[in-house]
Design a protein that fits this description.
- The chain is mostly beta strands and 83 residues long.
- The protein has no helices and 7 strands.
- Helices cover 0% and strands 47% of the residues.
Length: 83
């Protein structure tokens, strides 16, 4: 596979680009059944969390976090502000 190997369920992501947002593509649903990820945006840009087909699951602004989970056929997520 291409991309970054996920080694933890907690991801601190610091997007560094000239653009307003960066994409974070999740693993294929068939390979992620039961996987739950806690994603924290620690950078200055937004993060668009997408499934492997490119559909948006969650959009994180600066200092927001998301919890995303997979049931083997679809990713679902929710977003909140950091405290």
């Amino acid at each position: 596979p291409t991309g970054t190997l996920i080694t933890s369920n907690v991801l601190f992501v610091d997007p560094e680009s000239a653009g307003a947002n960066e994409n974070l593509d999740l693993p294929p649903e068939a390979d992620a059944n039961g996987l739950v990820l806690f994603i924290y945006n620690t950078g200055g840009e937004g993060i668009i969390v997408r499934d492997d087909g490119g559909a948006t699951i969650a959009t994180l602004l600066t200092a927001e976090h998301a919890i995303v989970g997979c049931n083997g056929t679809a990713w679902k997520g929710l977003v909140g502000a950091e405290t």
